[in-house]
Amino acid sequence: MNKASEEHLGMRISGWGVALPERIVTNDELSQTLDTSNEWILERSGIAERRIGGSTGSLAVEAGKLALKSAGVGPETIDLLIIATTTPDDQIPATSSKVQHELGLSCGAMDINAACSGFVYSLVTGCGFLKAGCNRVLVIGAETLSRFTNWEDRSTAILFGDGAGAVVIEPSDAGGKLLGWDLSSSGELRDILHAVIGGTLYMAGSEVFRKAVIAMTESGKSAIAKAGVSPEEISLVIPHQANIRIIETSMKKLGIPLERAVWVGDKTANTSAASIPIALGHALDNNQVAANDLILLVGFGAGMTAASAVIQWGEINE
Ligand code: UT7
User: Fold this and answer.
1) Is 282 a catalytic residue?
2) What mean pLDDT, rounded, does the chain reach?
């Protein structure tokens, strides 16, 4: 059992922000160049459109700025920047270098690559740094999957999009807590979803689908158990926005009603490490979170990785 479960780290998300490229690419537009259709994509994935454009760094800067503004804090107050991305702008240095500079931060900065699970990996890492003495950590999930997509491959091109989501986290004694978390990796499955350096994404779609349901269910259950709560007590689930069918099946297996899951993938497609903070930002902007709510973040991705966190929301106007 991890330590967060025993000591329940007091933390709160004090600000958030979402950045999406302006350009909308609909299923119908993709159908003009690919042997596919709006009906097929909608039925098999729930995706209607995606946003394409920008760079990972520029989207991260935009989301980060909004998160700082919403937290009401200046860049000088951030003690650490973590960027979750599997599509960095450069091989070297980390995308976080550019983002740190452009946001005017004067703290340490690093990237974490755990594919689509990267944001939850980074959030849990950020919480560890709060425990180690940081007062405020900026965690951003940012991706430009469109740069790694083979636009002639209908089995992958329909699924992905670009975007970024950011949160500011800080210690709290007003009820907000990281109650439990789970991070996992099954490296033996790394070949079913991968891109070699300089290449585009390869995915064994239906195998990834099956493994994704297992990973989401096991990871989610593990975090819920470590949090010491029951699935019925979870008021909101922010799942990785890969495919509505994966979410439907996983929610059933987790024992949580589907209505409690946030789904924005119809508008964003799969934005990998950005998908959970984008969906979380959407839920927060739409007042879907109340004081003392228990929120489950749950994701899976290439690796295959999986990651979950159960967060208790604190006082709303802290
Ligand atoms: O962040 C993690 C990343 N990845 C994922 O989460 C993806 C997980 N997998 C999936 O979401 C689904 O497997 C897909 C949406 C990719 C595909 O859905 P599926 O129900 O698993 O379809 P399938 O791969 O079994 O393909 C069924 C048929 C095949 O034709 P045949 O062999 O039955 O004749 C495919 O060639 O659908 C065909 N197909 C398409 N048809 C129209 C595959 N892609 C397309 C397409 N349009 N875009």
Assistant:
1) no
2) 96
> Where in the sequence is the domain holding 38, given as residue range(s)?
9-171
> Domain for residue 318, yes or no?
no
Tell me the CA–centroid distance for residue 206 and ligand 1, in Å: 6
Which residue type occupies 39? Answer: E
127 is catalytic: no
Same domain, 299 and 203: yes
Q: How far is the CA of 41 from the centre of ligand 1 (A)?
A: 9
Per-residue 3-state assignment (H helix, E strand, C coil) for 94-141: CHHHHHHHHHCCCCEEEEECCHHHHHHHHHHHHHHHHHCCCCCEEEEE
Task: Tell me the pLDDT tens digit for each residue of 187-209.
Answer: 999 999 999 999 999 999 999 99
Tens-digit pLDDT profile for residues 40-79 = 999 999 999 999 999 999 999 999 999 999 999 999 999 9
C-alpha 82 – ligand 1 centre gap (Å): 33
Cβ of 242 closer than 6 Å to ligand 1, yes or no, is yes
5 has a pLDDT exceeding 50: no
Interatomic CA distance for residues 10 and 137, integer angstroms: 14
State the CATH number of the domain containing residue 197. 3.40.47.10
167 lies in the same domain as 191: no
How many structural domains does the chain have? 2
Instruction: Please report whether residue 45 resides in a domain.
Output: yes
Active-site hit among 27, 113, 116, 127: 116
Is 240 catalytic? The answer is yes
Is the pLDDT confidence value at 285 over 90?
A: yes
